[in-house]
Write a structure and sequence with these properties.
The complex is a heterodimer of chains A (530) and B (277). By secondary structure, chain A is an all-alpha fold. Chain A is built from 24 helices and three strands. The longest helix of chain A is centred in the last third of the chain and has 32 residues. Chain B is globular, with a radius of gyration of 20 Å. Classes of the chains: A mainly alpha (530), B alpha/beta (277). At the A-B interface, helix 1, helix 11, helix 12 and helix 15 of A face helix 5 and helix 7 of B.
Chain lengths: 530, 277
Amino acid sequence: MWHAMAHRLNALVGNAACGGRSLPLVRGLLLLVLLTVSATVCHARGRHPQNDGSRPAAFQWADTQWGRVLLMKDYNTRIVIFGVAVLGGASGLVGSFTLLRKRALMGDALSHASLPGIAIAFIAANWFGGNEKSLLWLLVGATASGLLGVAVILVIRNQTRLKEDAALGIVLSVFFGAGVALLGVIQQMDTGHAAGLEGFVYGKTASMRAADAKLIAVTSLIVIAGCLILFKELKLLCFDEGFAGAQGFPVVALDVGLMSMVVLVTIVGLQAVGLVLMIALLVIPAAAARFWTETMWRMMLWAALLGTCGSIVGGLVSALFPGLPSGAMIVLVCSIFFFISMMLGTRRGVLIRFLRRLRLNRRIDRQHLLRAMYEQIEKHSGGQAGRDLALRTNRRTPVTIDQLLSMRSWSRRRLCRAIDQADEDELLRMHEGTCKLTQAGFTEAARLTRQHRLWEMYLIAYADVATANVDRDADKIEHVLAPEVIDQLEDLLDEQGMMIPVPISPHGIVNDDPTAVAGNPPDRSPEAST
Amino acid sequence: MLNPQERTDETNLPTAARDDGSGADVPLSVYDLTVAYHRKPVIWDVGFDLPAGQLIGIVGPNGAGKSTLLKAVMDLIPRASGRVRIFGDTYRDNRHRVGYVPQRESVDWQFPVSALDVVAMGLYDKIGWCRPVRKKHRDQAREALTRVGIGDLADRQISQLSGGQQQRTFLARALVQDADLYLMDEPFAAVDAATERAIVEILRDLKARGKTAAVIHHDLQTVPEYFDYVVLLNMRVVAHGAVEETFTQDNLQKTYGGRLTLLDEVTEAMRRRESSI
């Protein structure tokens, strides 16, 4: 029962969520990206001496390296940025699936494990006198060792009692360590052309050629197409593997398919993002997107968008400063997106959750206030006979703040805030330290009190809660009672012959004579009924 | 009393054992089914025929292998041995005639999908690979949600449903499968009274339409009320048959026996210690 109620609470809070506010925020994010880029430009213009030619800087702006990169005048830059952008979109999509499948770290293991493969491919190509920088061979090596790493993880997980996180940690570090050692070996070799390999570790768009970028773009497009075509199947796999299997979908094959897409994105992304930080592009956009929506395709759209923006900005910055690894820049930009999403996300953001909780607390305070007022009026109205009528005529009985304060353990400040708000909503009138209920306030107070007592009676009659504890327990739950639950309570209590407009409190009201508690056991008070 | 485990008589063998094409009217037949995790058997030599058009309760203590049995029937986990027949054929061939309600805890309810999305998943097999979910499928899903009484919550994200509503969503997903045999893994676990009544009603409705439902159930008190037939399971099948004959104190003792005796022993030990002080 409590469990169900907790869920109902969730549902209520969730309903208060505001939808359809995402569009301005999309614009805001884009604006932010533009600002970042232009700020970098301005900064650089002030510091770099390329601009000190004969013409004023303002006129030759477009001809500087900066202008060329930012306006994408070079065919090469254009292609590279396009390739990186598509890569960001593809990783956003694939990353959403792996995040939901709770396999996000597999991509990390895969990319780290690819380093020894790259190094070995380089050495082998060198040995056989081939072109040691041929990207294709390096990527084949990367794939082979990356997959080997994943296989080792699976073996460790399945054959030993070690958990997956331990397996990931072992494989990731061992393979990466081996890769670093092999890079050191390459540095010692006579050829000494290993400089290009560092781009694989941290990512370097500056050193990418058009052909590399085309490979990235084509592979990423294939992955995007795969995600879209298999959207339904992968969604089912990520949500409910067992049901997918029962329906005859080949779970293992689908997992392999998803993993292959991760492999493709990771391997072609090595050059652009670098193997250390490739995981950022797989996880951060997807995780950030989750704050904005409760729908899967929207989440994927957001993830793709954020991934694309992050990659473009990171790629541009790295193209401008060959010393700045693009991986680091992409991570930084993505993490800004993530932080904004985490705070402002319209569905699961920190701020919206805080507001929802605040709103709920305010509502609860108001309900407590109204009920306290009602109970005070009830006290004034005295006896049982004609109680309902007496209550109505005593509606305007003034209740002092001190009286209200003694009803519950609330601070004066909190009580006064609740009173002010109720006053604003015309539920009561506040005058010189005393409150009077309005007609609307009285109706609401009667309804709330009734709800509270129905629930109390239910707890006593059916849940065997002691009369002394019942007020506290009912207090927690009454604020979240849905109308249908009230209906059920009424039906139940009606069968017991206890239906009354507002039943009498089963435990007496605070400050009352404690003997009143024993005097009125609820399941024996039919005389109170109208 | 007849002990179903003594299968000396050939005619008592489950149809799955005969494999002569007979048993097309037997919704689920299991023969000699053994499943092991890490060489430790979870269910052992399980065999029975389920009668068609009845509500069947699968009952047994925790860890008796009830979920494992259902999963093994649906080829979700490898079998060490044994044979399973669904309407006289393999699960693979007849899986479209089986609807499945997994345990509610088996999925992450924070997943970004609505109740309607979840129910539509029951149609994915029919929709086919790579084809999108269309309006008629969504209408079908909505109808199923209405049938379980939460049609108005169709567009809600699933974490915003109560436990009972989540369970009903799973039930609706099985209903859209329009199967002949339903396998349900503890649909009554931790649901509110209203949901329990709704589920019972749906089960009876299924029965009225000639469907069979095999339901893993924990609450022994309600077994005679909800089910016609019962399979008592504790690693092995202790007994199976119509509720009136099979659901006896004696058989329950055998099913839950290990634990009950242990408890008795502990109580006895406590008592002895107390008396000695």
